[in-house]
Amino acid sequence: MHPRHRPATGQPRCVEHSVDTADSSAMLNRLTGPQLLARVEALLPEHRERRFPPTLLLAIVALLAGKLLGLIWISA
Predict the structure, then answer these.
(1) Mean pLDDT, each 10-residue run in order, the chain (76 residues)
(2) What is the pLDDT of residue 76?
(3) Measured between alpha carbons, how far is 20 from 72 in angstroms, rounded to an integer?
(4) What is d(CA 31, CA 38) in angstroms, rounded to the nearest whole number?
(5) Can you give the C-alpha Rg of the chain in angstroms?
(6) Measured between alpha carbons, how far is residue 57 from residues 53, 74, 75 in Å?
(7) Where are the domains of the chain?
(8) What pTM value is reported for the model?
(9) How far apart (Å, rounded) are the C-alpha atoms in residues 28 and 37?
(10) What does the DSSP assignment read for 23-60?
(11) Which terminus of the chain faces fewer neighbouring Cβ atoms within 10 Å, N or C?
């Protein structure tokens, strides 16, 4: 650290106070309120359908990882 820079002494206390007084339901209400809802929805990615169910995808990844690591030999 540069000698002229001093660690911020008030910032950790401010963060602790913010964490202690956080109200998740109030934050959700603000995000879904009429003033911010359109802006929040505009930032969300478009919904995509899954090509493969999670179990099939896990099996594919495990098979490829095993093949790459030399643990599985597949002959055609």
Answers:
(1) 62 67 78 84 83 89 85 66
(2) 54
(3) 51
(4) 9
(5) 25
(6) 6, 18, 21
(7) 10-68
(8) 0.33
(9) 10
(10) -HHHHHHHHTSTTTHHHHHHHSPPP---SS-HHHHHHH
(11) C
